[in-house]
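Recall the central idea of this unit: under ordinary conditions, the amino acid sequence of a chain determines the structure it adopts. In this exercise we apply that idea directly, starting from the sequence alone.
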Amino acid sequence: MTQQGAVLQGYNNELVKYMEDLCLQREELNKQIQEAEVEKNKLQHEIQILNEQLECVCETLTQKTASRNELDKILAETEAAYMKILDSSRMLLNVLKKEVGNLNKAAELKSNVS
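Accordingly, the structure predicted from this sequence is:
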């Protein structure tokens, strides 16, 4: 019976050793989990900050794009109006040249008749 008790004691000692090893592994794994959770929280915080920054940049970009589009519209309208002014100036110059030419012809005719 003492031999069976010794065998049983050996099993018990080995069982306790494995249980202690499992507890150590669990503690190490728990430590790694806690570190990972800290890292996860840190990254989530950084993501939140980056999302807020992205939102601000997107808003600014939207506003600046709208301003640029308005400037493009104003420039196009101004250029069209300026082209009309140039065209009117050209037509006025042509009319004026024609009238001056007619006046010069009339003056020549009058001086030739006198």
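The mean pLDDT is 94.
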